[in-house]
Structure formats: C-alpha cells, structure tokens
Amino acid sequence: MLILDAIQYLGQPPESKGLDAYLKSIGLEERPVYREVPVEDITRYDDGFSLIFSSRTSYEKWWEAPTEPGDLIFSSLQVYSARYGEDFSEYTGPLPYGLTFDTTPDQAKLIFGEPTTDNPSGPENRTYAWYNHGGYTVSVCFLPDNKGIGFVFIERAKKKPPKKLDW
User: Fold this and answer.
1) Rounded distance, CA 115 to CA 108, Å?
2) How confident is the model over 47-101, as pLDDT tens digits?
3) Which domain of life is it from (predicted)?
4) Does residue 30 carry a pLDDT above 90?
5) pLDDT of residue 150
6) Distance separating alpha carbons of residues 16 and 69, to the nearest angstrom
7) What is the DSSP string of 90-134?
C-alpha cells in the first residue's frame, strides 16, 4: 500500500470500481461491511497500516457528499512506526511530504508550517494536525523526547478545521 496512491480513493465506497481494483492490486480481498456502527476498518498489523471507512451519514456530516453511493466511505488511513507499539509492524512504504519515522516536531513544522492543532495523545505523545495541506488534513503523532513519529493519519480536509482540545 502506497499512501499517495491510496488517498486518491478517499471519498469512495469499498465497492466502487476504482477502490475495489486498488484494494485487489495491493492484495486486499477483504471489504468492510456496514454493521450500524459509524466506523469500520481494514487493518494490516504486519504491514503497519489501517484503512478507515466511515458511515455514509458521518462522512457527509464531516466531509462532503461521497463520489458514489454506498453505506461505508473510505475516509482516512493511518500508518504506524514500529516504535508506536500496539502490535503494529512498521509501515515500510514511503511517508508523504518528505516525512520519515525519525522526523521531529520541529522538522515537521519546516515542512508544513505551524500546526492547526497540537494535542496530547496519551500520557506522553503529542499529535499535531495540519488542516487542508493540499486538500488533506495530515495528523502526526510524535513520540516524547524527539524519538520520532508513532503514526501518521491522513484524511481529506473536513468542512471545518480541527480545534485544539482544552483538556
């Protein structure tokens, strides 16, 4: 799975011809099934990634009208470093925008500018989000003490930018 290839299909249901063909091309035969919950995923722990699908109503609320009809819409993807834990192997494909899993917050700011938000992620990590970077929101979870990136999360830019949490 290559991030820049996969994000071209954001906004499509898993049964769309384009997304279905892409998933098959990367060896994924599994398709999420709508079960009356707002989110389903296809997660590959050994490959270090998750493809996240939102219910159609949720997608329309936060993003826009999907490109095709369907109960679930491909809404985001997340790739993990081996340092993040949670049973994920490290994603071995290239990260977008010049990021690497060794990138620090200061280096990311040189790439993207000041983040739209900077929030805690667990007891020690920080997640920075850059809204509408080329039509996408890029969120990066940084590990403490400049130890790199735990995960990268990419979605289309929502209708409204994220807000900083006040807790």
Assistant:
1) 9
2) 999 999 999 999 999 998 898 999 999 999 999 999 887 789 999 999 999 999 9
3) Bacteria
4) yes
5) 94
6) 9
7) PP-SPPGGG--TT--HHHHHHHH-S-SEEEEETTTEEEEEEEEET
Q: How far apart are CA 42 and CA 72, in angstroms?
A: 12
Q: In which region does residue 135 sit, left (phi positive, over 0), alpha (psi from -120 to 50) or beta (all else)? A: left
What distance in Å separates the CA atoms of residue 143 and residue 105, rounded to the nearest whole number? 9
Task: State the alpha helices, DSSP H only, in 2-119.
Answer: 3-6, 17-25, 56-62, 105-112
Q: Check residue 165 and give its pLDDT.
A: 63
Q: Which residues of 44-75 are buried (b: 16+ CB within 10 A; e: fewer)?
A: beebbbbbbbbbbebbeeebeebbeebbbbbb
Helix (H) or strand (E) holding 142: strand 136-142
Q: Residues 6 or more apart from 101 whose CB is under 8 A from it?
A: 81, 82, 83, 90, 95, 148, 149
pLDDT at 123: 72
List phi, psi (to 5°) of 158.
-70, 175
For the record, the structure tokens of 65 come out as: 């009208």
The domain spans of the chain are: 3-156
Q: Record the pTM.
A: 0.91
For residue 32, give both structure tokens. 């999420």
Q: How far is residue 72's CA from residue 87's CA, in Å, rounded to a whole number?
A: 26
Q: How many CB atoms lie within 10 A of CB 151?
A: 25
